[in-house]
From TrEMBL:
Family, per entry: Belongs to the citrate synthase family.
Listed Pfam families: Citrate_synt (PF00285)
Record keywords: Transferase, Tricarboxylic acid cycle
Protein name according to UniProt: Citrate synthase
Taxonomy of the source species: Bacteria, Pseudomonadati, Planctomycetota, Candidatus Brocadiia, Candidatus Brocadiales
Species of origin: Candidatus Scalindua japonica
Catalytic-site annotation from UniProt: 305, 362
Gene Ontology biological process terms from the UniProt entry: tricarboxylic acid cycle
Length: 430
């Protein structure tokens, strides 16, 4: 067995090395504290493996992303979102019969319980749809108390179908709420992406016809978002799952984590940045200068990634897809030109080159959503719908054990040393 030695002033310790399928190496420190008294310190977990996982493989240096071993480029070209969801959750591509069965389950679960629908009335009209999504997904556990036995594949399949189908209905209904429009119900014969757009954009008196290329583009976007191993929201799902929390509660927490502008909220932030440039409030040059100036607190949104240090394969697919969508819609958007200019300038600037900062998936996804007519605050919602199968797969993997181990990191305490309590009339604020 391969080991690594660790030495302090008095002793040498030997730690086992764990090797993954693609020869990636990790030092197993699970006995470090008990044997040495030390812990490791790694804020942001950039050097910490939290688990072993067989779901997704990423090589950030080479720009590789594979779901269950299959390259993302092949899935984007040949597969569809529901097949990818099945693949991520169950580990292999479904047969035709299995695929049809799961699709039928999604159709059967597309509606929301009538009482659940009333929850929407409790939200203000301008509520952010991510807040509604997180709350409504958590509320699903009140209406569907499945998963009494988390290892039972039938129950997981049922819960997965409920979630994957209903999240789309919740998303569309929250959009309708924000517009003061009546809810539109899903149609059984529509594909997943088609139904999402139909429920968002159709009106009782006016049917929204979804162009096949747009339907396909949204499907591809969902595929590209479907999993990304131990990112912030997925780690959140696994962390919450480790306490024994049910699937709905764990996913609700993942949605909250995804909402942040450094994660799934970045696609909205990209468009807001491009709009500022377009309105003349911020020039491309000024934007680049500000991004380089640490004092400004500004970052070039849609640029950089914790893992990809060469290129983000998803961003490359989306860049091509955005051109196709614009072609189909005969759409011209000055923001696309600004995005291309920004990308061009940044990729030639030593600041970005030296730090290996490239466009990430969010840089182009927002531009496509905008062309389709999706409002900016719904972008992270589309991201959440896409990421859902990955979250479910990770929840399943994290809980598939008889000995659930609660995730509980340690810390290095830096606060005051022991001090006595001071009664209130003896305190001074000097
Ligand atoms: N603009 C300007 N500078 C940046 C950017 C950026 N977008 N991203 C990173 N940097 C700089 C940092 O300031 C740092 O510089 P320094 O070495 O001089 O201190 C260096 O590049 C490394 O950055 P880190 O913060 O260490 O990178 P990290 O891996 O922690 O962060 C992150 C990755 C959060 C994605 C970051 O690049 C970022 O904030 N990007 C903008 C937001 C964004 O697009 N998020 C979407 C991520 S993808 C997703 O969630 C699907």
């Amino acid at each position: 067995m391969e080991t690594i030695s660790l030495k302090d002033d008095q002793k040498e310790f030997s730690l086992p090395v764990v090797t993954g399928t693609e020869n990636e190496k990790g030092i197993d420190i699970s006995t470090l504290r008990s044997e040495t008294g030390y812990i490791t310190l790694d804020p942001g977990y950039g050097n910490t493996g939290s688990c072993q996982s067989s779901i997704t493989y990423i090589d950030g240096e080479k720009g590789i992303l594979r779901y269950r071993g299959i390259p993302i480029e092949e899935l984007a070209l040949n597969s569809n979102f529901i097949e990818v969801a099945d693949l991520l959750i169950w580990g292999s591509l479904a047969t035709r019969e299995m695929g049809e069965r799961f699709t039928n389950m999604l159709t059967d679960n597309a509606l929301l319980h009538e009482s659940l629908k009333h929850h929407f009335e409790g939200f203000p009209f301008d509520a952010h749809p991510m807040a509604m999504l997180s709350a409504m997904v958590n509320a699903l556990s009140c209406y569907h108390p499945v998963l009494t036995k988390p290892h039972n594949p039938k129950e997981i399949e049922k819960a997965a179908a409920i979630l994957i189908s209903k999240i789309r209905t919740i998303a569309a209904f929250s959009y309708k709420m924000s517009r003061g429009e009546p809810f539109i119900y899903p149609k059984a014969r529509y594909s997943y992406a088609e139904n999402l757009l139909h429920m968002m954009f159709s009106l009782p008196h006016e049917h929204y016809e979804v162009h096949p290329e747009i339907k396909r583009a949204i499907d591809i976007i969902l595929i590209l978002h479907a999993d990304h191993e131990q990112n912030c929201s997925t780690s959140t799902v696994r962390m919450v799952a480790s306490s024994g929390a049910n699937l709905f509660a764990s996913i609700s927490a993942g949605i909250a984590a995804l909402w942040g502008p450094l994660h799934g909220g970045a696609n909205q932030a990209v468009i807001e940045m491009l709009e500022k440039i377009h309105s003349g409030n911020l020039g491309v040059k000024k934007c680049i200068e500000m991004a380089k100036d640490k004092e400004s607190g500004f970052r070039l949104m849609g640029f950089g990634h914790r893992v990809y240090k060469n290129f983000d394969p998803r961003a490359q697919i989306l860049k091509e897809l955005s051109a196709k969508v614009f072609d189909v819609l005969k759409h011209k958007d000055p923001l696309l030109d600004i995005a291309r200019e920004l990308e061009d300038v940044a990729l030639r600037d030593p600041y970005f080159v030296e730090r290996k900062l490239y466009p990430n998936i969010d840089f182009y996804s927002g531009i496509i959503f905008r062309a389709v007519g999706v409002p900016t605050n719904m972008y992270p919602v589309f991201f959440a719908i896409g990421r859902l199968p990955g979250w479910i797969a990770h929840w399943r993997e994290a809980t598939a054990t008889n000995r659930l181990q609660i995730a509980r990191p340690r810390q290095i305490y830096t606060g005051p040393a022991k001090q006595s309590y001071i009664p209130v009339d003896q305190r001074s604020h000097t």
